Amino acid sequence: MTRKLFCEISPLTYKISYEGHILKRKITDTLRANISKDKYDTKLPYIVFEHQSLMRRGLRKVPVPVEEAKVKNLQIAAPKVNRVLIKPGETFSFWNLVGRCTVQNGYQSGLMVANDGELKKGTGGGLCQFSNLIHWMVLHSPLDVIEKYHHEQVDMFPDSDRQVPFGSGTSIVYNYLDYRFKNNTSTTYQLITYVGDKYLHGELRASEAPKDTYEVQMIDEKFIEEGGQVYRCGKIFQYVLNNGNLISEKLIKTNHARVAYDTSNLEVVKQKS
Predict the structure, then answer these.
(1) Is the model's pTM score more than 0.85?
(2) Of 69, 78, 132, 128, whose CA–CA distance to 103 is shortest?
(3) How many angstroms separate the CA atoms of 15 and 6, rounded?
């Protein structure tokens, strides 16, 4: 018989293990990490990249009350990140700024994606849209992503007004699944984040004019049937250009995600046996 881990013995031991992990990370961050925390009321002068993300997508699997709860959660979280500076040598940590999502802090029960790719409801659900927005902006800059998780092993919804490539999102769980990037440049950066009527808005700004431009593209995306199951496949690349000339390219993500919706209207390639 396989011996159970301490966290698997009972709900209580899971809770103890979970809280212990959170405390350990807080202590580690206090002692070792140079986490961004200072804010600057004035916007830095140069826009590196800006993006807006539609909050209410009207997907069939997502009830309206759950989607409205997500909007409320974003309205609470966005100001906690807004105008933060990421100085040279500092690390941005999503959870260090946003904090824990609790009912006492005003968060509502929104939609979450579990480890197995299934949908569930939880307090603070929907905030991955916020970390997705930040990540998409960071991909268009020289900032270095040092911690990122994803739940793209399952393609949950058919494309609806998709603005960014599938697979470029993030997965976050307080506080052990964090989204972090580090500023290894000599330039100070700043995040501007706010909620409008329809969109979650973001700007990545800098103290100096950008020298390069960045493009992120999906290459060779296709739907492939393997063993009776359809998968969404493709590769995401980041391209760095200077005066229009390509100076480097980097593979960001390789997708191989099980499609969890009706594929009858898709062009599916059958894998050769």
Answers:
(1) yes
(2) 69
(3) 10
Residues 6+ apart with CB under 8 A from 179: 93, 94, 131, 134, 135, 147, 148, 149, 170, 172
The identity of residue 23, as a single letter, is: L
Q: Which of 34, 26, 48 is nearest to 87 (CA)?
A: 34
> 185 — alpha (psi -120 to 50), left (phi > 0) or beta?
beta
Q: Which amino acid is at 9?
A: I
Kindly state the DSSP code that residue 174 receives in the 8-state scheme: T
Distance between CA atoms of residues 158 and 161, nearest Å:
10
Q: Rounded to whole angstroms, how far apart are CA atoms 79 and 84?
A: 10
Which tokens sit at 214?
């960045």
Contact 223, 231 (CB under 8 A): yes
From first to last of its 273 residues, what are the pLDDT tens digits of the chain? 567 666 667 778 778 887 888 888 888 888 878 999 999 999 999 999 999 999 987 665 666 677 899 999 999 999 999 999 999 999 999 999 999 999 999 999 887 776 555 677 889 989 999 999 999 999 999 999 999 998 768 887 777 767 899 888 898 988 889 999 999 999 999 999 999 999 999 999 999 999 999 999 999 999 999 988 999 999 999 999 999 999 999 999 999 999 988 888 888 998 765
Domain parsing of the chain, residue ranges: 1-32, 35-210
The answer to whether 107 and 130 have CB atoms below 8 angstroms apart is no
Both tokens assigned to 62: 């997502």
Phi, psi of 94 (to 5 degrees): -55, -50
**Tokens matching residue 177:** 């699944």
Please measure the distance between the N-terminal and C-terminal CA atoms of the chain and give it in whole angstroms. 38
The span from the CA of 193 to the CA of 200, in Å, is 7
